Amino acid sequence: MSISFDPDGSFTALSENIPCEAFLKLGRAAAEIMCHGGRLLVGTDTRISSAAFEQALTAGILSAGCEAVSLGVIPQPAGAYLVKKTGADGFVYIGDADGEAEKCGAVIYGSGGRRIGEDVIEKINEKLKSGRHSKNISFGTRSSYPDAIGDYIAFILRNCSSDLSGMTIAADCANGAVSEAAEKLFSSFGAKVYLLNCDPDGNNINRECGISHMESLSEFVRNRKCDLGIAFDGTGSKCLAVDENGTAIDGEKLLAVFAKDMRERGALKKNSVVVSASVNTGFIVFADENKIKDVTTRSGGRYITEKLVSGGYSLGGELSGNILFGDISCESDGLLTAVMLLSAVKRSGKKFSELCSVMERYPQVALNVKISEDWREVWKNIPELEEMIEKKEKELDGFGRIAVRENPSEPVIRVSVEGKRFDAVNDMAVEIAGAIKRLCPSHQ
Questions:
Q1: From CA 256, how far away is CA 287, in angstroms rounded?
Q2: Which pLDDT score, from 0 to 100, does residue 444 have?
Q3: Does pLDDT of 381 surpass 80?
Q4: Separation CA 320–CA 322 (nearest Å)
Q5: What is the mean pLDDT of the chain?
Q6: Interacting residues of 114 by C-beta distance below 8 A, sequence separation 6+
Q7: Which residues are CB-neighbours of 226 under 8 A, at least 6 positions away?
Q8: Which terminal residue of the chain has fewer beta carbons within 10 Å of its beta carbon, N or C?
């Protein structure tokens, strides 16, 4: 299998489809483009394939005459911090945030601790595709970072000096990269912590645990009467939560909690939050009511980071649990998010559920309508359909939205309606979808 990087500087595939030779080639290509005899840091999550892929990647780096510094098993954002701290030329992380052990992939960061840009991605992909390499007459050296996790924890402690004594929390570590770091970090703050799914064996990462499976965490929090529960992904990049009642709290509600807390403390720069363009209407209403500006950008951590940095903002994130604190880091960091959340709850003196009530999530209904190839793009110019959508949008009266878009890869139109009441948005979605079927039949 040949590998290539997506625009966000990452790729993911089934581990069995990725030969070690692909990682060897990746290591050499990345080193030749980014290092020129310098250093690349290498870290992994806990999946069983990561060790073999790390060795192959390291061999490629060494063959390019560069130094490969092994961080071992470590949260992905830790490597993003350490590459900047150490002055290395880049950092390659091997793993996958949400996939179970059968999947693996890689993410590449530049010297500043941010994902590589499209220009570097293009150069690496071209070198992987062509197979042409620089002539090299020497080999690089391999070394290890003696206390990578310790330095990462010290970084969080410097930025989150909070006393969490008296709090009882549960943390689902997804049998992933935060398993070791979480235990060391949370014990430093004085809270009583129950660690769940904190015993990685190479095969159980993200398996019915972590942010994708929060049911058991919810039950545990209710039964043990915890103040709240925290869930991570396999790489430690994302964080979601459950309140004291076991109710799941998504990334947009977490953003609302952080925005209100930071605004009250005078820490919300430009009184703004960077969010994806698809953010729930409930967040927009929350922001408006609290005189906070929502700055929108494309979905994806990379684009939120770019907007955060270019605009000089201090908070950004999205539904999935990617949360960024621009004054501390420009990488989504699950453990940092967790500590910032616990600090906000402790500071407020309120229950977590009460803090989350500042934002009401609006219901959404999405329907797919198949059309014939003949109607692709043409449907946009049907006056009756345009008038119907415009009328329905007016009925929402600013408290919702309608998105009708064509799938670029197949003749399907996706109708998405969001608003205050489920029955109303459902009726609208069904009516618009029905009109599309009538006006753009799939068979002529």
A1: 8
A2: 47
A3: yes
A4: 6
A5: 92
A6: 80, 305, 309, 330, 331
A7: 168, 169, 170, 194, 220, 244
A8: C
